[in-house]
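Per-residue structure
===
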Amino acid sequence: MSTKKGRIAETQAARYLQKKAYIILDRNARGGRGELDIVAQKDEILVFVEVKAHQQRESSLEAMHIDKCERLRSAALAWLSKHSQYTTLQCRFDLIILTPRQGIMYPPKIEHLTDIFR
């Protein structure tokens, strides 16, 4: 995904989360062996959100391979080491998939998968 396309998708995902009462704490946080697209909090849960915007939903799911999950876990641990005030919260990893719809006038379909790996 291009940087511009990725930023647009991440902004759409962040807006979606905010409408669902998530508080966005950080975006594009680099650390460990990876990068976290969005770090958010909802109630007493800290959520590390990966955003994928592929032409096909299946491509987004395939991009979440074992190595990608390990890099996200590493980045999350690095983020927590810098933000110790959140270490008491339960953590989870979510995936937001944005899939284009037919016609340029329609916004992408947004699918939010929670707790995608442990």
